[in-house]
Design a protein that fits this description.
about 550 residues, 17 helices
Amino acid sequence: MRPANHAGKDTMNFEERELYRTGRSTNFGHAAVATSEPLAVQAGINVLRKGGNAVDAAIATAAVLTVTEPVSNGLGSDAFALIWDGDTLHGLNASGRAPAGWTPERYGDATAIPINGWDAATVPGAVSAWKALSDKFGALSFGDLLTDAIRIAREGYGVGPVTAISWANQVQRFKDSASWRETFLPGGNAPKAGQLFKMPGAADALELIAVSGGDAFYHGVIAEEIVRQSKAEGGAISMDDLAGHTVDWVDPIAMDAFGVTTHEIPPNGQGITALIALGLLDRLDLGDDPDGVRALHLELEAVKLAMADTAAHVADLAHMRISAADLLDPAYLDERVKLIDPDKAADPVTGIQQPGGTILLTTADRDGMMVSFIQSNYMGFGSGCVVNKYGISMQNRGAGFSLDRKSPNIVAPGKRPFHTIIPGFVTKDAGPLMAFGMMGGPIQAQGHAQLVTRMIRFGQPVQAAIDAPRFRCLGGRKVALEASLQGETQAALAAMGHEIQNDAPGVAFGFGGAQAIMRVGDLYAAGSDTRKDGYAAVL
């Protein structure tokens, strides 16, 4: 039986400034762009001012981010999107597949796919996502959307403070990759905050992509160079693998909770984790305090159960043995919620997760179109394999495969790996309410559940919910808490059986970064995260 107060609040107190002392307030406008880097936001705003729509702005923003935030994404990334076209919500899965040469036997006696090298790099899908979005929804010429990205790559930009820290943190991991050092260590060192950095190879690639409508990347000279370097360094990607890449337009999966409907891309991604968690939380009494021990404990327990199901069952949709509908079935959730003790932490089995490197952007225009778009290298710069001629850092999404022959996620030719990157969208009364999302590998689905709970269940303003402290489930009872929760709240959660590990590897950058644009009356309310070099602008 659901508690009487499971529905969300109808209003937000947008006069709550600096609730979590970030100094930021929610932005309001008739159109908006929010992402993790200011130059990329400016590119999206430029497109809107030229008469482009939210999809055009998303493509322009995403293209610039491949240049200005290479620590997280690039031309070698994968991508997903959720698009409200004014009447209907559409889902795009542009993640790449395993090369034809990838079989379990290729990896010999290894127990896991490597995180570095060509044997971790699946076919990149980001460029195909841009073109597919432009073809289906764009108002401006595809080539014109890449103008700012080309200029910035050619002329250079000042590296952002948070980006610079991430860059420096990855030097040791890629110290043995000559191709990575050549492109991303100018003068032998990671660039410092504010240092000018240029990517002439990426500028050349973007020009070819603009002129060819993306064809050069999958069939032409860029594809040939990717294959040449892959072959020279023992990789398996072929021209057939690149030419055979396709995107999929998919029906989003959804969960009704707190009086709204949250939508995610169906597997091979982890968005279903957020939906399961929200379905469980909608069946619980969270109390009145979004930062209170009761709410945090119940959220932790719901997320852990959702992660356990995801780890056991989620893979390429064509290879799953239990359907997404089964995992979201109300009767199933009614049984799962009984496992949550309001006073004590449980210990469900969860999969081992890896740290992530991702960008997320949201856009909205005057005509009501809204976009949540995400693209990622997976772990920072990705595989460490860089096609230097074109500045392409290849993602390492292959590391999302399993080598366990009993797993539905076992590696196979032409198969998509388990993905961490997920765009999010919320509707209310069959109309658009919010395009949102989060960066940061395993935190993403956990963060989606936390953001929706704060904004909808507790009525927190957009920027405040983004700024609020987060938790991160690390497996079993192990959790990490952001700094402002590490006092009496941490002690209370520990007393309930949660194992607090704030110093676990990867946790320092492990609470992600979020962006969101919410419909508020005739305007949009936009917010962006201070955990990255985030920025939101409105028209």
